[in-house]
Design goal:
The chain has 165 residues and is of the alpha+beta class. It has 5 helices and 7 strands. It has a 7-stranded antiparallel sheet with strand order 2-1-5-6-7-4-3, with helices on both faces. Strand 5 and strand 6 form a beta hairpin. The longest helix has 16 residues, at 26-41. The protein is globular and about 40 Å long. The model is unreliable at 1-11 (pLDDT under 50).
């Protein structure tokens, strides 16, 4: 009888591998491009949007798919990979002025939520974004206090109407 190595059965193992350096590897980048096309076309409006923001170094538009979350009548975007995420730095550099696409382009302003208010939003985010669960080290069914302990590590942005010029 041949003995085999036990397989790692932890949920999200592949997802963690795709983002192990805090940035997407080639497979994740390809999947993000496909996701951005699907979200931009508005094919899955209730679940995905494409964030378009100018790169802080190149000035070129950067697009990536994100899962918006509704909480107490407001909509939010969460950085599942944490504070070092490139899109977070780009949004901050752009002063929060970005475009969301879900069938049509909508200019919006993203306002960063203070750390003290993030926990219930992070909890709701894990309920609606299963792909984020391997990256945020709290069980989606945990109480709010557990999310408060990690809230500083995961930026959250409130989606607001863009200021008129």
């Amino acid at each position: 009888m041949m003995e085999t190595q036990p397989r790692d059965r932890r949920p999200g193992r592949i997802s963690r591998w795709m983002y192990r350096s805090g940035r997407p590897n080639r497979l994740a980048s390809m999947m993000n491009k496909v996701g951005a096309l699907v979200a931009s076309a508005g094919l899955w409006r209730s679940r995905m949007v494409t964030l378009e923001v100018r790169g802080r170094r190149t000035g070129r538009p950067v697009s990536l798919p994100l899962v918006p979350v509704d909480h107490q009548g407001e909509r939010y975007l969460v950085a599942m990979l944490g504070t070092g995420t490139a899109w977070v730095a780009n949004v901050r550099a752009a002063g929060g002025e970005v475009v969301l696409r879900a069938g049509r382009r909508t200019p919006v302003h993203l306002e960063e939520v203070d750390v003290a208010s993030r926990a219930p939003i992070l909890r709701r985010y894990l309920q609606v974004a299963p792909g984020a669960r391997p990256h945020i080290p709290v069980d989606r069914r945990a109480d709010t206090e557990a999310f408060e302990q990690v809230a500083a590590r995961f930026p959250v942005f409130r989606i607001q109407a863009a200021a008129r010029t």
